[in-house]
Structure formats: structure tokens, C-alpha cells
Fold this protein.
Amino acid sequence: MATTGRDLFSLSAETFLITGASSGLGVEAARALARQGAKLVLTARREERLEALARELPNAAYYACDLSSTEEIEDLWRFCDQEIGVVTGLLNNAGAAVVKQATEESDEEYRSVLEVNLVSVFAMSKRFAKRLIDVKREGVVVNVASVLGLLGSGQIPLASYTSSKAGVVNLTRELAVQWAQYGIRVNAVAPGWFFSEMTESMFTDEKAQRWIAQRTPMGRAGAVGELDGVFIFLSSKASSYVTGQTFVVDGGWSIL
Ligand SMILES: NC(=O)c1ccc[n+]([C@@H]2O[C@H](COP(=O)([O-])OP(=O)(O)OC[C@H]3O[C@@H](n4cnc5c(N)ncnc54)[C@H](OP(=O)(O)O)[C@@H]3O)[C@@H](O)[C@H]2O)c1
């Protein structure tokens, strides 16, 4: 039977765990999903930020966690099991970047970016899916990749970041294939340029701002709220037959 209007965008999951919910795109995603009626678990390292956001939202809990630590990831899922119940939605949004020429980037720096941007996406998704499969529930994973997971970055040297995000794009496909049989959909969003702590230096530097505007067919960076639609689409019944895909939201950056 056809679904229309509000029902179409009713969420595919009741409880979403959002990583990187202490700033930037994670905060926006949390607000957008909360407006759709989701119950949320917010995580990042800065607990005071999580607490403030949880206070603002109608139905949100938080748990501070460093995603580069396997032990802390285990603690986070123990918290969810004991305090929240079954988490049916996962938004892998946390990310980090090192801006350095590849010849200057240390192996440790490279590994640390992969740890947060890629290994944690695997570690979180795996624990999420295992629980759902055990209790025979369906679910939805949304990974935050980047246009820089599809293209080289051009002016900014980002070897670890671009390769980690390319990994997220194909991990999304692989997990989608493995888990389709369980009713767990896995998709990704690849944003272009949006203001956040990570990109602040690009937005305060006039030359960099000009470069973004000139290089983007739509002539500007993304604005607050312009990822809400894709986050909601991928988390809702509107995308019930969509899995393994990466949705680019970049004002046309990647088509040139
Ligand atoms: N802004 C853009 O233009 C853009 C474009 C494409 C993709 N993205 C992606 O969007 C996602 C969000 O980035 P953003 O732009 O919103 O940047 P941001 O404001 O710097 O947010 C990064 C988030 O990741 C969390 N984080 C970083 N390292 C962590 C760790 N070890 N353990 C747990 N959490 C960690 C940070 O929280 P704590 O510091 O509190 O731990 C923060 O909440 C990232 O995956 C980024 O790569 C952003």
C-alpha cells in the first residue's frame, strides 16, 4: 500500500545512536532526527557538550566515549544495553582530519585518523548489527563519508582523511550486502563543504572561501539544515528499498 505525506518520512528506527554529537553536523543531525520523533543516544568525548544538547532535546541520553578506544566502545554499548534497550538506528558521524602533506604526515597521524573515521565505523556498526540480528530486529545505519571520499581534495593535503572516507564509502556497500538479509539498511552521506569546527579555518580564510564559492557550481558552501533532508530520508521509511548507497550533498562540487 502506498505511503504518503508524514507517514512517508516516519523513521525506520525508534532509537538512534549518534556519534560526533558534540558539535557540527552531529548536532544538526540530532536536532533533525529529534524533530522526527526519534529517541537519541548522543556520544562524543566532550561530555559537557553532550549534556547541553541532551537537555535541549525532548528524548535524549548521552554517554561520553573516545571512539579510538575499543574498551570505551564496549562501555558505550554496555550503557545502551543497560540503560536504553535495543538501538535500532546508528549514525556514524564522528570524524577527524590531519591537514599535512603526505610526506610530512607521520604513520601515527595517518593511523589515528583511520581509527576514528573508519575503524570506529566498523566497530560501531558491527556491535549494532550483532545485537539486532540476535533479537531479530531490523535497523538502519547512516555513515557520514565525504565528497573527499570520492575525489582527491585538490588544494588541501588530506591523505589520511580522503582514504578513510573512501573506506567508509565501500564499507557502506559491503555491510549493506552482508546485512540486507536481516533488514538492516546501510547508507552513507557525502557532504561537500559545511561550516563546523573541522572546517572553521576554511570559512575564516577569505581565499579559501573564494575557492569554495568558485569551485562549487551552486556558488556557495552548504548551509545549516541542508543535510537534514538526506539524514531523514535515509533514516526513514521513504528509503525502505535503498541500501549500500552514498548520497552526495555538495552543491555540485563533485560533478566538475
Ligand atoms: N563539515 C564539513 O564540511 C564536512 C564535509 C564532509 C564530511 N564531513 C564529516 O562530517 C562529520 C562531522 O564533522 P563536522 O564537520 O561536524 O566536524 P566537527 O564539528 O569537528 O565534529 C567532529 C565530531 O567528531 C567527534 N570526534 C572526533 N574524534 C573523536 C573521537 N576520537 N572519539 C569520539 N568522537 C570523536 C567530535 O567530538 P569530541 O571532540 O567531543 O570527541 C565531534 O563531535 C565527520 O565525519 C566529517 O568528516 C564534514
In short: The chain has nine helices and seven strands. The CA atoms of residues 45 and 65 lie 5 Å apart. The longest strand covers residues 184-191. Residues 20, 22-26, 44-46, 66-68, 93-96, 116, 144, 146, 191, 193-194, 196-199 surround NAP (CB under 6 Å).
